[in-house]
Automatic annotation (TrEMBL):
Pfam families in the cross-refs: DUF302
Residues covered by the DUF302 domain: 46-109
Protein name as annotated: DUF302 domain-containing protein
InterPro entries noted in UniProt: DUF302, TT1751-like_sf, UCP021774
Organism field: Nocardioides mangrovi
Length: 142
């Protein structure tokens, strides 16, 4: 499956997504490794399943939000528009569908252009290219 930024069961016009055929914990590890290969570090990690179970008493499938950041891109974007900080870091979600399948979604940085203006396009395009490479690497592991 090729990463997409159009509508599929798990994507929206503002996300990139792919499906990986591996267990959740393995998928999370693969996503972390693929992000590192593209120069992203993970600044934050939110375990949605645990958080919503604790706060609301609901049961979700395992899923995590990884707050990924590539400092040179973040700095360049902030130089153009400091309000871009509200859209940082790049959120990447890993969600278990079943015991051997996960969906990996990322906010598509190209969506920032409509919010922050055309000046941000070069930075958004590079971030989009790198996140697409992350998802492509995950596809190649399938």
């Amino acid at each position: 499956m090729t990463p997409t930024s159009h509508t599929t069961p798990y994507t929206t016009p503002y996300t990139l997504s792919t499906t990986v055929r591996r267990p959740y914990d393995e998928a999370v590890g693969s996503v972390r490794a693929a992000l590192a290969e593209q120069g992203f570090g993970v600044l934050t990690e939110i375990d949605l399943r645990a958080t919503l179970a604790e706060k609301l008493g609901v049961d979700l499938s395992p899923q995590v939000i990884l707050g990924a950041c590539r400092p040179p891109l973040a700095h360049a974007a902030l130089q153009i528009d400091p309000a871009v900080a509200t859209m940082l870091p790049c959120n990447v979600v890993v969600r278990a569908i079943d015991d051997g399948t996960c969906v990996v979604e990322a906010f598509d940085p190209l969506a920032m252009i409509s919010m922050a203006g055309a000046e941000i396009a070069p930075v958004a395009t590079e971030a989009h290219t790198r996140l697409t490479a992350v998802l492509t690497a995950l596809d190649e592991e399938n």
